[in-house]
Amino acid sequence: MRVDMTYFGLLVVLCICARKSLSMTLNTEDWAMQTAFELPCGDWNCECAFTRQRGCCCAAQDFYALEQSVYTRIMGQWGALKQLNNEIKATAEGRQVAFSAAMSPLMSCYGPFTTDVPIPYREVSLNSASGYNPTHGIFTAPIAGLYSFSFTVYSRVPLYGDRLYHHVILTQNGRPLTSVWEDNREDNEDSATHTVLLSLMPGDQVYMLLQSGRELCGDLLGTNMFSGYLLYATGV
């Protein structure tokens, strides 16, 4: 009987201690919520930490700040990539240089003139980068590089025994480079084609000259042609 009373008394003491401990815990939480000074929670939500609200994240502010930081960095990288893409596109377009043009059909003759004159190849089929001026028949290099130029010279006189008399000169900045010429009465038409490679700097001009006193005749199909294109850029 004394043993039972002893166990009963011990149980009563433990219950009293547990209630006091629980009361102290509740009082501590109330005190933490009601205190006026700042709690050592950093950027965390102290109210959420003490009350354990459903669906509440104590580090919500930290995660939101991290999300904003990552988003800002991604958008910055995206903007940099777009700018790089635009620069690459602009560079590539600037290096796509090519032109092709032909003389307008000739019912009679072009020339003769009292001085050397540039031949105006006005029928333009290609003029990438707008380097060729069809009014004057002059190509101006937009960038430095190695260029390929080709030209075809054709002339036809009405009758055998009439004089074929032409001289067409490929010219760079006023300096003659190569030419096609004919002076005979043995046939009534003639044609020739040349291709040359030229190293040009920006602003260099290339064109075809018809020598003074010479003429191009009877080109009904626009066979006289002048073309060129950039092989590769240099000095970059």
Write a compact overview of the structure shown:
The protein is α+β, with helices and mostly antiparallel strands and 236 residues long.
Write the layout of secondary structure elements.
Blueprint: H1 2-34, H2 46-51, H3 60-94, E1 98-102, E2 109-110, E3 117-118, E4 123-128, E5 132-133, E6 138-140, E7 145-156, E8 164-172, E9 175-184, E10 189-200, E11 205-210, E12 216-217, E13 225-233
Antiparallel strand pairs: 1-4, 1-13, 2-12, 3-11, 5-6, 6-11, 7-10, 7-13, 8-9, 8-11
> Quick check: average pLDDT?
76
Structural class: alpha+beta
Percentage of residues in DSSP E strands: 25-35%
Shape: rod-shaped
Helix content: 25-40%
Compute the number of helices.
Answer: 3
Q: What is the straight-line distance between the termini?
A: 107 Å
Number of strands: 13
Taking pLDDT < 50 over at least 5 consecutive residues as the criterion, the unreliable ranges are 21-26
Reported for the largest beta sheet, the result is: 6 strands, antiparallel
Spell the H/E element sequence. Answer: HHHEEEEEEEEEEEEE
What can you see in these coordinates?
- By secondary structure, the protein is of the alpha+beta class.
- The chain has 3 helices and 13 strands; from the N terminus they run H-H-H-E-E-E-E-E-E-E-E-E-E-E-E-E.
- It has helices at 2-34, 46-51, 60-94, and strands at residues 98-102, 109-110, 117-118, 123-128, 132-133, 138-140, 145-156, 164-172, 175-184, 189-200, 205-210, 216-217, 225-233.
- The strands form 3 sheets. Strands 3, 5, 6, 8, 9 and 11 form a 6-stranded antiparallel beta sheet that branches.
- The longest helix is centred in the first third of the chain and has 35 residues, at 60-94.
- The relative contact order is 0.16.
